[in-house]
Each structure stands twice: as C-alpha cells, then as structure tokens.
C-alpha cells in the first residue's frame, strides 16, 4: 500500500520525464500511464481515477489502460474479466471527462460508442 499514491505517481513521472528528455527523447514522444492495477490496491486505483487531472501539469498525453481491470472487478464483485465491460465504460467516461486522451480497451466498439455518445453530452455540437 502506498502512503500517498498520487504523490508517488507524480514523483515517478517527474523522474522518468527528466530521464527521457536527458536521453534526447522528444517531449511529444512521452505519454504518461498511471499504471492502473500495477502494484496498487483497489483504494490506490480509485484515488488515481478520482484525481486524474493532477497529471495534466506535466503537459503530456495521458494513457489509461482501463479495460476489465481488477479494480473494476473489486468494485463490482465480478471475478471474470470478460464480464467487466460496463465497468470499463464507466472508467472510460471518467477518463474522458478529466482529459485522458488514450485508452487501452478490449471492447473497442463499446469504447467508441461510449465516447461518441459522451461527446455531444459534454461539448456543444458544431
């Protein structure tokens, strides 16, 4: 368990961005992935989802690997990952509303439909 998972993620991103830039990687090639479920507990993952906007200060695209994650199974009490698509959509909506630009999903059709439905609900049609 992390004492402060958000502070730890921010420190990790600061360190890795500096390292990447020091090796000559162009800034536009750097994408941030908060590592949902990777060495984290359910409460840590939920804190990341609740505070995704904190990572925008780095000025890099945010990738959310959200598909069928253990945290979704923990919240919903669903053991089979293939049955977690509805929870995946909820995480997708949360990510989109907080400015995540990239999503890793298994059910691409559901993700596209969700984002295409969400878009006119949140932003005016042009």
Would you give an account of this structure?
The chain has a single domain (5-12, 30-122), classed as Alpha-Beta Barrel (TIM Barrel), CATH 3.20.20. The chain has helices at 5-22, 42-50, 70-76, 85-97, 108-122, and strands at 63-65, 102-104. The protein is mainly alpha-helical. It has 5 helices and 2 strands, in the order H-H-E-H-H-E-H.
List the helices and strands and how they pair.
Blueprint: H1 5-22, H2 42-50, E1 63-65, H3 70-76, H4 85-97, E2 102-104, H5 108-122
Parallel strand pairs: 1-2
Helix pairs in contact: 4-5
CATH architecture field: Alpha-Beta Barrel
CATH class: Alpha Beta
Q: Report the span from N to C terminus.
A: 46 Å
Coarse shape? globular
CATH superfamily: Dihydropteroate synthase-like
For the biggest sheet, the summary is: 2 strands, parallel
Low-confidence runs of at least 5 consecutive residues: none
What is the overall pLDDT average? 94
Tally of individual helices: 5
Number of distinct beta strands: 2
Query: Considering DSSP H and I runs of 4 or more, what fraction of the residues is helical?
Result: 40-55%
What is CATH's topology name? Answer: TIM Barrel
Structural class: mainly alpha
H-E string: HHEHHEH
